[in-house]
Design brief:
The chain has 752 residues and is an alpha/beta fold. Helices cover 31% and strands 17% of the residues. It contains 25 helices and 25 strands. The strands form five sheets. The chain has an eight-stranded mixed beta sheet, with helices on both faces. Helix 18 packs across helix 21. It is elongated and about 100 Å long.
Length: 752
Amino acid sequence: MANDKDPRDYVFTDRGYTSVAALKKEYCSGCGACANVCGYGAIRMIRDRDGFLVPEIDGSKCVNCGKCRKACPVLSPVYDTNPNPRCYAVMAKDDTRGKSTAGGAFGVIAEKVIRDGGYVCGAQLMDDLTTRYTIVDTMDDLDKIRGTKYVQSDTGDTFTRVREHLENGEKVLFAGCPCQVAGLKGALENKQYDGLLTLDVVCHGTPSQKVFEKYIDDVYGRENVKDFSFRTKKYGYSCFNQEAHLKDGRDIPSNFLADPYEKCMHRSIALKDICGDCPFAQTPRQGDFTAGDLFSARRFGQQCADGKGTSMLLTNTAKAEHMLEEIKGDCKLCQEIDFSKVKGRNRFGRFMNIPKASRRWLYNCMDYQPFDKVVKYADEKRYDVGIIGLWYGRNYGSMATYYALHQILTRKYHLSVLMIENPIKPDGEKHIQVARDYYDVSRRRDLRDMASLNARCDSFIVGSDQLWNIWLSRPYKQMYYLDFVDEYRKRIAYGTSFGIEYKGTEEEKLISGAELRKFDHVSVRDDYSKQACAELFGVNDAVKVLDPTLICPVEEYRKLEERSTMKDENNYILAYILDTNEEIGRYLEQLSIAKKKKILLILDEPPWLWDEKYARLKLSGCANIVIKGHIGLYEWLWYFSHAQSVVTDSFHGTIFSIINKKPFLTLSNARRGAQRFVSLLKPLELENRLFQEPEDICRHANCLKKLDYTRADELLGQMQKESFAWLENALFSPKKVHGYTVYDIQDVRTDK
């Protein structure tokens, strides 16, 4: 079967699209068939964020005729060629072969079409170093479209022009990637034209034009480059060299084993998503011919491998067989070979592994980092920063904390980030969806193997959260003091906290202090932690900063809220309670009656403890209290955003009340560290919202009325600037050690 993928996987089945808007972006090949067939000018091909061609639909012009969807080769594929083609080893005569990438099979066919008065359509590298399709009808112009182009090409209006030639009774040879040949067939409504001959190349996949331009800019300087050869035989057919031709007359070769562009292409790091799951890579093929390198030429006899290039040529149709008989006299060699012995050295399978994390890192950081570094790190799965912390925890505040820190580092500072997996065991399940959607996550290591992370990350950040709380950190030994980090890597603590009074043993204090003093930069999120760093561990330069959740743009949380599946609640008081008891339950019931409002109650515990925590409340069945258990972070954020007011005993419950500018009442939670609430609220002049006893829920219910955040916002804005300044210095100041051999983190701020 040509394509065994469920067609529903390609489309948005629930949106009712009749146009190519139904096609998921990652499955668009960018062939341009849709734009060519639209008779209303509603579709144009544009380059997306990564530099790949995608259709843009003008809804004001679209009449929902469905013509573009029928032309799309992914949505409406046709496989009408021989699934068991004949295969040939082909060498053109040396004058033609010398101009070709492989054995010159395309050149022989193209020259025959031009001698017969026809046209040849193929990709040309233009003077501005973009790759666009061109139609030629002379031998001199044919040279412009010979050779391999390892970059996505723009077909433009080529399909329309090919149709015009065909309807005039003229011959046309169209050569391109299989998806482009399929696009042409779709644009021609799969009509059979006697004058049309197609050739698809064995394609590994294509990087975007943006990647190629970044490479040229960084390595050579675009203004210096006259032309570029993606493959040249000047240094031997088997060398896979490319060559930049500079305006000053120099030719600069590079080998694909070392060149960053060749590396990111051949190792699939820069390819389009659909290239990894190409519906056109296997047989039956799309073209009348299929051409590629015959890398296994020697196994078919010495005559097939003279070191000057040999083509593998498939004849997929009777039309191709007929043409091959006509051109055999123009070939030095045309020998039928066993196709089954070729498949293993060429791509004739639909699936190919594209390292998604590496690809994401390449395209996210390419605009801001040197190209060679981006490719090196993507290829080696290296990262600027590794984050150690409780991002995998069961607590919503922890999940939000690390999401915030991750987004700041990746979105604001354009750094690659690896989230370090818990070395002991997973701590919960709520984090899994967030990690799947947003993080690159390390494999799990045991504590003895954590040092291997030094080969993956240039710097390490611990925090925020109560990572130095002795009761939390003790199972992990000194991991949260980054004891596994070597002298060549930077150690940073951002907003890390002890939470409660430090009560480690004398031995633990000595060991922790020795590791803490190795940090390059230390910041904490509360006054007690700053004091403890100085008095207990001899770290006198620790700085108090804001929790990451308070410096992350609110838009980042809104993105998560949109993923929530629970949006049916409104006009409620949100109660987010960590430590429950009967007294709290009683006062929540009284509050719901007094306010005549529904209370939406969220309990933060893993499933195996949720029932126990709920039982401690001993609610009497108050109809106005709705329990929300076992929800994810997306829902948690949505409920904060849409609440009228908040009652909480949580540090992060308080923070997200402030972020969403909600009236709130906070119960000081001594068991989890009461001082941190004061450290948070006093600088914002909101300490009047902090209370000690459950009865204060009702006694001070007036706190749940409208709250003016003008002064708090002013103070918060200044503290955010100070926190960012500290973090930027910690990230981008140089690591001053002898023999430092890794990349420094590049200061790529766009807003400095």
